[in-house]
Amino acid sequence: MLMMHINQKMSLILLLSFLYFRQVIFAQVLPLDPNEAAVVRQIATTLGATLKNPTDDPCQSKNLFVTQTYAIGTEFKVIENNITCNYNDGTFSHVTHIKLKTMSLQGKLPPELVNLPFLQEIYLVRNYLSGGLPKEWATMRHLNKLSITATGISGEIPKEWGNFPNLTHLSLEANQLSGTIPKELGNLVSLTDLILSSNQFVGSLPKTLANLTNLTDFRISDNSFNGTVPEFMGRWTKLQRLEMYSSGLEGPINPTIFALGNLIDLRITDMIGPQFDFPKLNYKNMKSLVLRNLNMSGSIPKDIWDMGVRKTLDLTFNKLEGEINSITTNTDFIFLSGNMLNGTIPDSIIGSKKNNLVMKGCWVDILCVSDNAPHKISIGNLYGRQNGTTNQPRES
Ligand SMILES: *[C@@H]1O[C@H](CO)[C@@H](O)[C@H](O)[C@H]1NC(C)=O
Ligand SMILES: *[C@@H]1O[C@H](CO)[C@@H](O)[C@H](O)[C@H]1NC(C)=O
Ligand SMILES: *[C@@H]1O[C@H](CO)[C@@H](O)[C@H](O)[C@H]1NC(C)=O
Ligand SMILES: *[C@@H]1O[C@H](CO)[C@@H](O)[C@H](O)[C@H]1NC(C)=O
Ligand SMILES: *[C@@H]1O[C@H](CO)[C@@H](O)[C@H](O)[C@H]1NC(C)=O
Ligand SMILES: *[C@@H]1O[C@H](CO)[C@@H](O)[C@H](O)[C@H]1NC(C)=O
Ligand SMILES: *[C@@H]1O[C@H](CO)[C@@H](O)[C@H](O)[C@H]1NC(C)=O
Ligand SMILES: *[C@@H]1O[C@H](CO)[C@@H](O)[C@H](O)[C@H]1NC(C)=O
C-alpha cells in the first residue's frame, strides 16, 4: 500500500518534470530567420492563402497561420498545416519541412521556395492549385522529399528537375501533368520512390531511367505511355512495389522483371502484347499480386498456393486454364474470373470466414457462395465476357 503510494508520487514528479522540460525546449525554439519569414509570407500569398497575422512566427506556431482552412469533402477531412523548423544556426531557426494538405489553396506552386535554403521536404496534397512545376526548385540542395499530389497542376516536368542534388522521393500523383518524361530524370540516382500515376504522360520511358537502381517504389498507372515495358526495370533489384494499372505501355514484360527478388506488391493490368505463360515469380515477400488482363496463358503454378501471396491475388481476365484443386487459405482475397479454369474448392476454404467474404464479394467466379452452397464449385469460363476495365476493386 505504502509502496504504491510512493510509486504514484514518483510518477507524478516525473510527469511534472517532463512537462516542465518540454516547456523549456519549446521556449528555446529560436525565431525564424527574418529573410525566411519574408519568404514564407510570399509563399503563402502565391499559394493563395491569407495570413491571419503576418507577424506570427511559423517556427513557434508550427504552422502557416492562414484564414479559412476547410476540408474539400467529408471524405478528406484531414487538414495538415504543418511547418517544421528542425535546423538552427544558433541565432535563427530555418524552415525544413512544409506540409499543407486539404487546405483548399487555390494559388500556384511558389518558385520562391528556393529561398528557404534548408528545406528538406515539401508535401502539398489535395489543394486546388493551377499552373505548373517551377523549374527553379531543382536548385534546392537539401530537398529530399517532394510530393505534389492531387492538386490540379498541369504542364510538363521541367528538364531542369534532373538536377536535384539529393532527391529520394518524387511523387506527382493525380495531377494533370502531360508531355514525356524528361531523360534528365535518370540523373536522380538517389531516388527510392518515383510515383507518376494518374496524369496524362505520353511517350516511352527514357532509357536513362535504367540508372535509377535505388528505386524501391515505382508507379506509373493511368497514363498514356507508349512503347514496350523497358527491360531495364529488371535491373532495379531493390524494387518492392511496381504498379502499372493501364499505363499505356505494351508487353512483352521481360521475365527478369517478374523475377525481381524483393517485390512485395506487383500490380500490372490492361496491357496488350504477345501471349505469355504464367511467369516465374519470387513469392518470398509477396503481399499483393495483380496480373489482370495481360494476355497470360497456361496454368497457374501450384507454388502460388504453397508459397502464398498473403493479401491479394488477382489473375482475372487472362487465358489461364486447367484445374485448380490446391487453393489454400494463405491468401486473403482471390480473384480468378475471366479465365478458363475449373476445379473444386476445398471445404476448408468454404468454411473459412475470411475467404467466404471474398466469395461473397462477387468478383470471383467462385463467387457469391452462400452458407449452404454446394462445396463443389465451377470456376467458370467467363473469358471474353468483360475486358477487365470495368470497376474492379482497387486497394492501395
Ligand atoms: C509536422 O511535420 C513534422 C516533420 O515531418 C513531424 O515530425 C510532425 O509530427 C508533424 N506534426 C504534425 C502535427 O503533423
Ligand atoms: C541528403 O539526404 C539525406 C537523406 O536522404 C541526408 O541524410 C543528407 O544530409 C542530405 N544531404 C544534404 C546535402 O542535404
Ligand atoms: C543510391 O543512393 C545513394 C545515396 O542515397 C548514392 O550514393 C548511390 O550512388 C545510389 N546508387 C546508385 C547505383 O546510383
Ligand atoms: C509514342 O508517343 C510519342 C509521343 O506522343 C509519339 O511521338 C510516338 O510516335 C509514339 N510512338 C509509337 C510507337 O506510337
Ligand atoms: C548511367 O550513368 C552512367 C554514369 O553516371 C552513364 O555513363 C550512363 O550513360 C548512364 N546510363 C544511361 C542509360 O543513361
Ligand atoms: C494476345 O496474344 C496473341 C498471340 O501472341 C496476339 O495475337 C494477340 O493480339 C494478343 N492480344 C492482346 C489483347 O494483346
Ligand atoms: C478442366 O479443364 C481442363 C482443360 O483446361 C480439362 O482437361 C479437365 O478435364 C477439366 N476438369 C474438369 C473437372 O472439368
Ligand atoms: C472494353 O474496353 C473498351 C475501352 O477500353 C470499351 O470501349 C468497351 O466497351 C469494353 N468492352 C466491354 C465488352 O466491356
From TrEMBL:
<dbReference type="InterPro" id="IPR050994">
    <property type="entry name" value="At_inactive_RLKs"/>
</dbReference>
<feature type="signal peptide">
    <location>
        <begin position="1"/>
        <end position="27"/>
    </location>
</feature>
<dbReference type="GO" id="GO:0006952">
    <property type="term" value="P:defense response"/>
</dbReference>
<dbReference type="GO" id="GO:0016020">
    <property type="term" value="C:membrane"/>
</dbReference>
<keyword id="KW-0732">Signal</keyword>
<protein>
    <submittedName>
        <fullName>Uncharacterized protein</fullName>
    </submittedName>
</protein>
<dbReference type="GO" id="GO:0051707">
    <property type="term" value="P:response to other organism"/>
</dbReference>
<dbReference type="InterPro" id="IPR001611">
    <property type="entry name" value="Leu-rich_rpt"/>
</dbReference>
<keyword id="KW-0812">Transmembrane</keyword>
<keyword id="KW-0433">Leucine-rich repeat</keyword>
<dbReference type="InterPro" id="IPR032675">
    <property type="entry name" value="LRR_dom_sf"/>
</dbReference>
<keyword id="KW-0677">Repeat</keyword>
<dbReference type="GO" id="GO:0009791">
    <property type="term" value="P:post-embryonic development"/>
</dbReference>
<keyword id="KW-0472">Membrane</keyword>
<keyword id="KW-1133">Transmembrane helix</keyword>
<keyword id="KW-0325">Glycoprotein</keyword>
<dbReference type="Pfam" id="PF13855">
    <property type="entry name" value="LRR_8"/>
</dbReference>
